[in-house]
């Protein structure tokens, strides 16, 4: 390799900087950056990722690297005023990994490097703390043996446990100096026996052994699978940070702590943190000691009765160090222009910063921090927008499980629709409706849901299913309703006949209490405290106003009812991109007429039944048009296959009832159900295929749309109906359906003596339609990309069935993500881009939008922006997210 | 319009010629051509298709057209030596349609134009036959009234029937002169009453009325739907042929006949035809009189006892005219270089030719004619190849229903696999096997078939299904077996419980006799005489030798057994393009092991079962490799979802048996069956998705392939195995499966200390694979286009379900043809072309082939040639057809 191998930092003379994450890793770059801007960090050096890549190709440490490291060590020794592993006053090192992208806990660390039988005495002498020194040595033996020499870590733990048992103590801290000395001897023996060689007392050998181990840890199985899981490249390599050890556990004038520059839970601009005196970093998080509040402001915010209220704060016990820390807080926020998550150690009164990084925060905090930092001049509006992630908004829109609550997770499914829900378990849609009428709250648990369950789903607080993926019926409908849903929970077994379910080894009966978390996919027994959402937030309003100003993509909603339409408007939807008409056929008053239509054996019979449906559907459209006054409403004509509206073949009672109602025979009804059965309904007789073969169905729907539009227009509503033909795969399908629509509209308008503008367009959801988009566009006013079906057909994945292999595929890295959640830009995206280009090449002015589930997914929204769509459409509860994602896309793509 | 409107012909001075079919229509161009080459045709003129197009846009006859027609009439009058509608010796005209492409019977004709109360007397005077003249007049009134004046034709028929009843006679010919005169008066009254005006006696008005009617008949509903059905454009228009009437019914010195220049049933080079003395053309085909043999040669070929053997031939009764006809036969064959189908009329001893066109012929005749015409110097080998259509070969490969047999067609399904079959009806695969073991022949009748029916299908003479399309399971498997199959017969209702079926209003029980014709889709009650096929034909051998020389596309076969492989070799297959391994799991000895594998609940359990399958599958491969010695064999790893190998949930007895065999519980087996159930199995957990999630399955298959290859290689077989990974949609799928294959092969070869060359490639059958072909190609030695699945996914059509709308789509012209039969070049073809281009752009040398059903379809083979594939692969019985089609493609595309 060429170039510099080692980057020194310390004494504000860092050779690297925060921009060099690729070469120095995130940790190394940030240490250098802090050092450069005058923040005290323990001196050290970073070995570049390039060295790691070289090492992995040929596992030797080149002389040039040793030489550069030696030079850096000399600088450190000069700054610290002591020598590495000097027996009288030893300088010790830590050795940590640090890749470009954080991979927490995935790679190895060795601490206290430089200790041996001699130097440990120097440490005792300087620290005056024998137990501390031997414990540090013991830890080095343990970590080095495990990480560098490949000794099974369990062996060390067993030795400690055995010693504690012998001594009759429970905590490591109860072991005395003599115990630790014995343990050190035993650890050495374990290493010798297990590794076949001695623990190296040579400090140089320790150092390079540790560096090599960190290099190697890039390719441990857990690191590889972590990268697969998080879709990270395998060729980045890790940097290695060798840094002076500082100790917060050297007495009453030492301490260690973690802090956030603002409150990460609500975003309030106050310095939030915890610390412990005479402790190591791991003690703060381990829970063996109770960390104290950083300052009085923080302590005062604790609830009455919290024992920490009785403990002193850093502000009080080490006012000088606290003052320095406050200055650093200020400096970091101004430098990074974001809320920081920091780690610090105070050794003998001297403050050292060990880490800074952008802090994780709740949705509410993210919004407040962004808005306030803009006010404070720390962020531009664009930066403030980028500081709020779409996932943050998602939290704001739904109930959340109280982060403070202790919960017992029984199992996990797919986080299909966000938010937490709880109530009594019911196993059928009917039970859900009945229970809710009786004033109870329920969670509907099903193997899977079907369109017949809609009312029950609507009644329930949330939905839990054993089968199906992120775009299964339950998931799609729940998201549309904004209702929490955990789908495809493989741990769950539902037994309808006995009215019970089993999960996590526990069995629940109907009526038992359950909580589900659709944000995480968790299923929890009983009730747990929830935190309610609130959208009425001035900070949020400012962020969203900037987003709307910044974005060029329109945002519509997928809504089938006036209620959903109104709700989506409050979330900022400017129109309906997908109004599914099939849900209109499932109401109590309609399903029978629909079945009568399906079971009719002639066109005349079907028309007779359809005429009864017409006024009902017209009324539906009037409601939706009125709710969307001033905005376009894209109505998709009937899409699902007809058998979805009939009982299934084994529902004997329903069939008998249906036959009775229609004056037909059970055999005839059964025969019709059988004749409509399909092997692959997804690829069957549905969408415009029904429209062409049973023209009367679409004719009635178009008539209802036009009549409704004229009716509401007469009442002063600014109505903009768009008729959308689904499942078009050939030019003639759209041409014929367009001609039919125009003919019906002309007739109705002539009859009523009034006019209304409308568009006729198509879904692009079949690969062939994308391929023929130039010809199809000649008959279209708009294209709406139905990326759910387009994904199904382009991949050959049934979204109902892919749940058995898609999770494996994502886990194995065969796919970067579930293509039903994130649009597959590499494959499906090619078809979308092709259809956009070919469609526009037709010379027609086409409106282009997307109405698949991807319309609410941020990375997919970014794609839609880049590919030149006019709008995205998503379920009401995703509308704010889509608005923000669209703004992000506009900012990121210039 | 510009240019000439009217083209005169007659007296060998025709203005047009045979190449002008677009302008003059097929009939007009051929009449002009015959006239030019010295063949006597009644003089006339053709009004161009351009005039028709103009007329349809603006329905008036321009003065220029009248003037040109008048000039042509004057030339006719001069040649014929009489005047149009001259009362003393009238020249009469026929007026016939004639489009570029023949649309037999779809448009209108008017004969005897020019007759009226005056001219009929001139016709009587010149013909000396009063009855003939009045009958001709009566016919004009009837045709003109119907065609030109829009009178319901039934009215005339009722009048004739009433008169016959009154006279007490049965035949029209029994009506006398007085009767005909009365009828003429009545017909005139009918016209007047029905059309509101008189039949025009003015001959010019008659002529132009007829011309306009023919123009208009281009757009009659039946003509429009004929064009839709035959995918003909609607903007061609028809030419109009006005031609001198000649009469074969003017006495004993007149005659009319039809003939083929060679025997159309076997191709023998002799002049085959029929004629009648004193008759009109329609009498020859109407069956009211028995036509006589044209010559002695033809009469001698009639079977003993045929009454025609007692009738004189034209050769005997009109030797001069016959001699002229023989000369014309010679001239036409030399001119058209093809066997001709001709019509002639002898009026008063003078021979006139009315029509010539290439004659329809049987497959056997086509082959013999082409081969012999090449020998005779009439055709080049290329022309001979083009003179044999792929459909002709199809006939040669299968039993056919004797064309002479009278059959009662009960219903019609899809012609799914060609050939005729007959036997006793059975309703289950088991019954088929049992009956055949007992020495009986059966037709297997099912609602639809599934992989479990394979043995029964193999035992049966043929298969009839009520459901499914051209690529349903029954159709695909039957074609693979070369077994006749009628699929998706909507007229058929099968009732398993009662063991009966109903079709065409008749009910059949198991054991009743049935005949099916997979070439036409006909279902026929009882047994009818069949004609056996023969491939041992020197003419065919010559044609196929030319084809193999000419074609550049390789032809392989889809075969799963050594038997099929050997059969395909005899048909000329040079390798196997698709060896499906799933059929290897359905044998009695394997299915149980396969089920044991599927029901195992761990990888170890699956491996244990798979180890038992390995030697069986290896033996299968050894057989196939040996049968294909010297040629490549592409083995597709397991493709269908696992549930296809298990009993279905309602097969209680089978489940119980299976549970018993495996020492498992019924509940556990049921649970596994349920857990494997898929909503859309076509888009489910199958192909390489199984390979990745249950790696042990593919590992065992690859091991079996490599072991088999090494074993047969050791026995001297030249083996060329190609491992094909199905259903690849992502790069990683192929990459992983290739690495796995190479690892297994390396291991086995090392273990056995021997080597064998093999390829690893993939099906391109998922749209996404075509889109990513450049990246996928990096891991492939070959692509094989699986156009069945590619068509399913590109269109979003399930081939199992599309039967309910695809026939409608083809009928309505939404699709030009069933895309499962003819590759959709416009849509699916784009993906194929894209994958070819992108795949080759990867820089790898890729072998490219197609193994979908389209590999045996001529138009698809042509596409494969143009797009640059290396080979096509099809079922054994399509191999000769593919070879011929490939030669056609090479000739047509230069």
State the strand order across the main sheet of chain A: 12-22-21-14-15-16-17-13
Query: Largest interface, counted with CB-CB under 8 A?
Result: A-B, 48 and 48 residues
What level of helicity do the residues of chain A show? 40-55%
N-to-C span of chain A: 36 Å
Shape of chain A: elongated
Low-confidence stretches of chain A: none
Secondary structure class of chain A reads alpha/beta
Overall mean confidence score, pLDDT of chain A: 92
Rounded to the nearest angstrom, the radius of gyration of chain A is 33 Å
Number of helices of chain A: 35
Structure explained in plain terms:
2 copies of one chain form a homodimer. Chain A has 894 residues and is an alpha/beta fold. Chain A contains 35 helices and 31 strands. Chain A has an 8-stranded mixed beta sheet. An 8-stranded parallel β-barrel of chain A has the order 24-25-26-27-28-29-30-31, surrounded by 6 helices. In chain A, strand 27 (720-725), helix 28 and strand 28 form a beta-alpha-beta unit. Chains A and B meet through helix 26, helix 28, helix 29, helix 31 and helix 32 of A and helix 26, helix 28, helix 29, helix 31 and helix 32 of B.
Write the layout of secondary structure elements.
The structure is a homodimer of 894-residue chains.
Chain A: E1 6-9, H1 21-36, E2 44-47, H2 49-57, H3 63-80, E3 93-99, E4 109-113, H4 119-127, H5 130-147, H6 153-167, H7 177-195, H8 203-217, H9 221-229, E5 238-244, E6 255-260, E7 272-277, H10 281-286, E8 292-293, H11 296-300, H12 314-317, H13 319-336, E9 340-347, E10 350-358, H14 363-375, H15 381-387, H16 390-396, E11 400-401, E12 409-412, E13 414-417, E14 420-426, H17 429-437, E15 442-446, H18 454-459, E16 462-465, H19 473-481, E17 485-487, E18 493-495, E19 500-503, E20 506-509, E21 513-517, E22 522-525, E23 530-531, H20 538-550, E24 554-558, H21 562-570, E25 576-580, H22 588-599, H23 603-627, E26 632-636, H24 652-662, H25 666-676, H26 688-693, H27 695-714, E27 720-725, H28 731-752, E28 759-764, H29 767-771, H30 773-777, E29 782-785, H31 787-795, H32 806-812, H33 828-841, E30 847-850, H34 858-867, E31 871-874, H35 879-892
Parallel strand pairs in A: 14-15, 15-16, 16-17, 24-25, 24-31, 25-26, 26-27, 27-28, 28-29, 29-30, 30-31
Antiparallel strand pairs in A: 1-2, 2-5, 3-4, 3-5, 6-7, 6-9, 7-8, 9-10, 11-23, 12-22, 13-17, 14-21, 18-19, 19-20, 21-22
Helix pairs in contact in A: 4-5, 5-7, 6-7, 14-15, 14-16, 14-20, 15-20, 16-35, 20-35, 21-23, 22-23, 23-27, 24-25, 27-28, 34-35
């Amino acid at each position: 390799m060429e170039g510099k191998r080692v980057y020194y930092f310390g004494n504000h003379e860092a050779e690297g900087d925060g921009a060099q994450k690729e070469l120095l890793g995130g940790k190394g770059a940030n240490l250098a950056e802090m050092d450069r801007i005058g923040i005290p960090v323990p001196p050290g050096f970073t070995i570049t990722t390039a060295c790691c890549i070289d090492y992995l190709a040929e596992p030797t440490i080149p002389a040039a690297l040793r030489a550069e490291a030696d030079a850096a060590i000399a600088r450190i020794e000069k700054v610290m005023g002591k020598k590495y592993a000097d027996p009288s006053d030893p300088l010790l090192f830590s050795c940590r990994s640090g890749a470009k992208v954080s991979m927490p806990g995935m790679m190895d660390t060795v601490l206290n490097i430089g200790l041996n039988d001699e130097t440990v005495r120097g440490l005792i002498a300087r620290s005056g703390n024998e137990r501390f020194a031997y414990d540090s040595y013991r830890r080095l033996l343990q970590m080095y043996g495990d990480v560098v020499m490949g000794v099974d870590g369990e062996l060390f733990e067993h030795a400690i446990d055995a010693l504690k048992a012998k001594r009759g103590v429970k905590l490591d801290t109860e072991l005395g100096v003599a115990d630790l000395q014995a343990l050190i001897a035993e650890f050495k023996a374990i290493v010798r026996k297990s590794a076949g060689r001695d623990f190296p007392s040579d400090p140089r050998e320790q150092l390079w052994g540790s560096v090599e181990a960190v290099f190697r840890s890039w390719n441990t199985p857990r690191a590889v699978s972590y990268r697969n899981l998080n879709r990270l490249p395998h060729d980045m390599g890790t940097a290695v940070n060798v840094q002076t050890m500082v100790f917060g556990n050297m007495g009453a004038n030492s301490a260690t702590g973690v802090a956030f520059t603002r409150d990460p839970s609500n975003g309030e601009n106050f310095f939030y943190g915890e610390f412990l005196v005479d402790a190591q970093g791991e003690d703060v998080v381990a829970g063996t000691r109770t960390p104290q509040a950083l300052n009085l402001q923080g302590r005062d915010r604790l609830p009455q009765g919290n024992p920490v209220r009785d403990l002193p704060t850093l502000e009080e016990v080490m006012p000088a160090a606290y003052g320095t820390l406050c200055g650093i807080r200020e400096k970091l926020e101004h430098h990074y222009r974001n809320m920081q998550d920091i780690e610090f150690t105070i050794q003998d009164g001297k403050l050292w910063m060990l880490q800074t990084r952008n802090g994780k925060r709740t949705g509410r905090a993210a919004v407040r921090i962004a808005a306030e930092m803009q006010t404070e001049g720390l962020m531009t509006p664009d930066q403030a927008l980028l500081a709020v992630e779409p996932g943050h908004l998602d939290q704001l829109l739904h109930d959340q499980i109280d982060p403070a609550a202790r919960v017992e997770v029984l199992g996990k499914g797919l986080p299909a629709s966000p938010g937490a829900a709880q109530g009594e378990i019911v196993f059928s849609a009917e039970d859900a409706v009945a229970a809710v009428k009786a004033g109870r709250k329920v969670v509907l648990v099903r193997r899977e849901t079907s369109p017949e369950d809609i009312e029950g789903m609507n009644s329930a607080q949330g939905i839990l299913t054993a089968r199906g993926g992120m775009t299964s019926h339950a998931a799609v409908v729940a998201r549309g309703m904004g209702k929490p849903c955990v789908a495809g929970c493989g741990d769950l077994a539902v037994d309808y006949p006995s009215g019970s379910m089993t999960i996590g080894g526990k069995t629940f009966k109907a009526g038992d209490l359950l909580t589900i978390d659709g944000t995480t996919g968790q299923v929890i027994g009983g009730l747990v405290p929830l935190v309610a959402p609130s959208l009425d937030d001035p900070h949020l309003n400012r962020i969203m106003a900037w987003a709307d100003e910044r974005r060029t993509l329109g945002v519509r909603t997928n809504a089938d009812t006036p209620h959903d339409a109104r709700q989506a408007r409050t979330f900022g939807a400017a129109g309906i991109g997908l109004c599914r008409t099939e849900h209109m056929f499932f109401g109590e008053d309609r399903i029978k007429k629909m079945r009568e239509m399906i079971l009719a054996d002639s066109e005349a019979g079907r028309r007779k039944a359809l005429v009864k449906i017409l006024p009902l559907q017209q009324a539906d459209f009037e409601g939706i048009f009125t709710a969307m006054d001033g905005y376009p409403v894209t109505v998709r004509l009937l899409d699902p296959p007809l058998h979805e509206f009939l009982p299934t073949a084994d529902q004997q009672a329903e069939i008998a009832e249906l036959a009775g109602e229609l004056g037909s025979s059970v055999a005839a009804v059964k025969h019709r159900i059988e004749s409509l059965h399909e092997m692959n309904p997804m690829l069957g007789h549905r969408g415009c295929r029904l429209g062409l073969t049973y023209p009367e169905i679409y004719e009635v729907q178009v008539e209802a749309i036009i009549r409704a539009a004229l009716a509401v227009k007469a009442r002063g509503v600014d109505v903009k109906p768009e008729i959308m033909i689904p499942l078009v795969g050939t030019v003639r399908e759209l041409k014929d359906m367009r001609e039919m629509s125009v003919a019906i509209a002309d007739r109705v308008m002539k009859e009523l003596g009034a006019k209304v503008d409308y568009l006729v367009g198509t879904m692009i959801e079949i690969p062939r339609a994308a391929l023929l988009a130039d010809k199809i566009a000649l008959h279209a006013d708009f294209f709406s990309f139905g990326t759910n079906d387009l994904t199904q057909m382009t991949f050959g994945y049934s979204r109902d069935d892919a749940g058995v292999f898609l999770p494996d595929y994502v886990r194995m890295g065969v796919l970067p993500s579930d293509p039903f959640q994130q649009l597959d830009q590499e494959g499906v995206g090619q078809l979308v881009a092709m259809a956009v280009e070919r469609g526009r090449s037709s010379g027609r002015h086409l409106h282009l939008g997307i109405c698949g589930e991807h319309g609410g997914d941020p990375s997919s929204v970014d794609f839609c922006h880049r590919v030149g769509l006019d709008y995205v459409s998503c379920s009401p509860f995703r509308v704010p997210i889509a608005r923000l994602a669209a703004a992000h896309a506009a900012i990121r793509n210039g």
